Amino acid sequence: MRIPAHSVCTAIRDDIVTGVHGRGSRLTEELLARRYGVSRVPVREALRTLEAEGFVVTRRHAGACVAEPTEREAADLLETRTLLEPLGASRAARRRTEAHLKVLRGLVRLGQERARQGTGEELRSLGGWFHETLARAADSPSLAALLTQLRHKIDWMYVVEAPAGPVEYWAEHGAITDAVARGDGERARELMTLHIERSASAHRLRFASGGGRTERVRNAQHPVNTAGPRR
Fold it and tell me: By its UniProt entry, which InterPro entries does this protein fall under (predicted)?
């Protein structure tokens, strides 16, 4: 059975984000095909996609390598997110469905409960689901794809510290959801802008100016999940 290239792409991207493939390291088709248990064809397609996304670069005499973004490029990501997330919230206020609202409200309730309990790691996952759901509620596939790519790259380049005030952080999520529920696009945009600007201070670069990583990386091999892209 031919493994879809998007599944291979997701697996390689995840391993770049988590540091399995370090910045600047070579990505040879043969080794990647062996690692993920696939042929070289989907690997080749995946590398082209990842190059277009900015995770991979092609170098003379070296071939495909993991990109080495600069601090300026990393800063640009946060600035771009500050522009796009509020746009998504504004559109969600006009285009969301009741199903989207139900999920958003459920995430806010759970997030507020976990914030009071102080379970930090789960809060980060819940926050990611909240922002992803809001992007989907905007009913704009191109915008949702851009925001997803942004989140991947921010996760790759930054360590995100737990918010100093998790209860207030989730109160902001609740206020955004209320604005979306009322169909108030301008208020949703305003609240999301403030939320993103406040959360920016919690981001710390994973690499120093000289290019060294600050976090330990994993090395375990694994096959691609052929049932679909990994989340």
Answer: GntR_C (IPR011711), TF_FadR/GntR_C (IPR008920), Tscrpt_reg_HTH_GntR (IPR000524), WH-like_DNA-bd_sf (IPR036388), WH_DNA-bd_sf (IPR036390)
